[in-house]
Design goal:
The protein has 199 residues and is mainly alpha-helical. The protein has one domain: Fumarate Reductase Cytochrome B subunit (Up-down Bundle), CATH 1.20.950.20. Helix content is 64%, strand content 4%. The longest helix is centred in the N-terminal third of the chain and has 29 residues.
């Protein structure tokens, strides 16, 4: 095994901060919907809003960082080896086959990851933020004559996006345990160093 330095300090900070905020927003969001009582409805709503603004700020900074460093190229989707990677996760991994994709500092994400991140960035995140902001400023937008439909479709869209994000998080956590050891990928996102078959 060769150790490859893949994840810079900011990437690791951004990843874990985003993960904590997303999980916290799922926790408070489902409480707002009455699934359980932890903080209380009003406090859960305030905490959810604070976490949302914090995450928006983090994303704005992360977008700036990705574009100024050129790291945005890591997310360009590709179909090269896509079928092989999908086959690995559905069949090959259970037969002990090696992963068909080798990470490098210039190509950190396999083709399946790139497609998943594209769906998150172009579908789930915009749906969450647009519906969330419409929900948050609903009264003001109605008074200004900018909205003429009810709150229900906005709330349903926001909840649907939250469930999509939850599915992504569960899948992400599962796939993070599929390295050569269950904690190998997680360790790489903590230390920055990934073990690979070759550099």
């Amino acid at each position: 095994m060769t150790r490859v330095y893949l994840f810079k300090r900011f990437e690791r900070f951004w990843h874990w901060s985003q993960a904590a905020l997303v999980l916290f927003m799922l926790l408070t969001g489902f409480e707002i919907h009455g699934m359980y009582r932890l903080f209380g409805w009003e406090r859960a709503g305030n905490l959810h809003t604070t976490a949302a603004w914090t995450l928006i700020g983090l994303w704005a900074f992360a977008i700036f960082w990705h574009f100024t460093t050129g790291e945005w190229r890591q997310y360009i989707p590709t179909t090269e080896n896509l079928i092989a990677v999908a086959r690995h996760y559905s069949v090959g991994i259970f037969a002990g086959e090696p992963h068909p994709y080798q990470v490098t500092p210039l190509a950190k994400h396999n083709p399946l990851q790139r497609v998943a991140y594209l769906i998150v960035k172009l579908l789930i995140n915009p749906l969450i933020w647009i519906s969330g902001l419409l929900y948050l400023y609903y009264q003001e937008l109605v008074k200004a004559g900018l909205l003429d439909w009810g709150l229900r479709p906005i709330a349903l869209a926001h909840t649907a996006a939250a469930f999509m994000m939850l599915i992504f998080v569960i899948s992400h956590i599962y796939l993070a345990t599929t390295g050569h050891t269950p904690l190998a990928h997680i360790r790489a996102m903590v230390t920055g160093w990934q073990e690979a078959d070759h550099a």
